[in-house]
Amino acid sequence: YIALMIRDYYALSEPTDDYALSEPTDYYALSEPTDDYALSEPTDDYALSEPTDDYALSEPTDDYALSEPTDDYALSEPTDDYALSEPTDDYALSEPTVPEHLKTRIKHYKDAYYNSSIQKFLSLEPYTRASSTRAPQIYHEECLRLEKLYFTKWAVHYLSKNGATDITLLQSYENEYEEAKKGDENADPRRDWGGRLRASISKKWKEREILDDVESAYIAEPRTNVNVNKEELKKQLTNTGNNIEAQLNNVKELESKAIQAANKHMNNRDDKSLEEQAYEAYSTLGEELRSLVDLMGEAEFQRILLLTTLPKDEQIKMIIQAMDKDSTNCS
Which spans of this chain does the record mark as coiled coil (predicted)? Predict the structure, then answer.
């Protein structure tokens, strides 16, 4: 259920030189897509098999279309993560809520973020066993490079579509995106097995793009008889942000423990107790990652309500800053 994308158990070839060039198999390989969390094979919507010249910002396709929520994705009644309880004096004449299709897009983004985080770990782990001590840094550089490529692509789309008045900011991201594309054309494909890391990062930012489009339309809607408390929302969002930072640090510690457990098992594959310890470490990591993205979903809901109270330029600034920070999360 926690979708660790694990098939059977380990059988990795030994890493070589600076790169862990062997194809991930068995324990680390991506299994067939399952439930809501698994990654499918990279498609044209999610990842570029070969670097192209333009990376055009196309309109969402059928894969991303905002169809009616289905049983797989639709949320039932609002939960504590997504809805405020009974209206209070701090809040409103009517209870602030968001429509079901927006909750669905938040869930899609959460799932893509979770999958991307799992894939980052699966990509990193073999590098920790490579013969070169610089190997983990090579992974880190590749992860940051891909994050910057798809973040700047997202930023150009977001600023253009939302009519940002800060033309200098838009031009800055356009320049960064062009530079990132040139770097992508010369990137070493050996650093990313089968494009899996690229696919997961690309999908995460595509889901973010779609969510932003839906959010922007919702925020622009006229509202009557709703009186949210801006300062209270800011306080809630700050508190949730602090909880996210604490949980992110927890996840990083668990990631380190899972890598250590995996390496111990790989050094002694006949020891069943080490195998069980490695599996338990991965399971715990997956559970805590799910808790992390649930907190992110809560923050997203709070931010949406706050954005409805802010001028357009402040809305754009808040989203850009949040996503810029997220684009540097590569373990």
Answer: 230-264
